[in-house]
Amino acid sequence: MSELNDYRTPEEAELARIFCEVMNLDRIEREAAYLELGGNSVSLYLILEKVKERYAIDLDPQLFFKDETSSLRALATVIARQTAVLF
Matching PROSITE patterns, A to Z (predicted)? Predict the structure, then answer.
């Protein structure tokens, strides 16, 4: 998996860890899009469950399929914004 210091925020690092674990990846770039990584409905379900478990939020699954929000960086930004509202 990528080194934690490759990522700019804790959310990016944690989401990268989740993606790598669920999708059996060694590394994920910040701008990598979910579908380009080989994402499917099963991996999406598992990722959403792990994000919910870790952050206590429900991400909209459609975010993973929109060009502007499907990258690791963009998804991590959504997580950061949603969790900031909670705390």
Answer: CARRIER
Whether residue 59 contacts residue 53, with contact meaning beta carbons closer than 8 Å, is answered with no
Round the CA-based radius of gyration of the chain to a whole number and report it. 12
| Structural domain boundaries in the chain | 4-86
Q: What is the pLDDT along the chain (87 residues), one digit of tens a residue?
A: 445 558 999 999 999 999 999 999 999 999 999 999 999 999 999 999 999 999 999 999 999 999 889 999 999 999 999 998 765
Is CATH 1.10.1200.10 what the domain over 4-86 is classified as, yes or no? yes
Q: Would the pTM count as exceeding 0.90? A: no
Q: Which structure tokens are listed for 9?
A: 């925020």
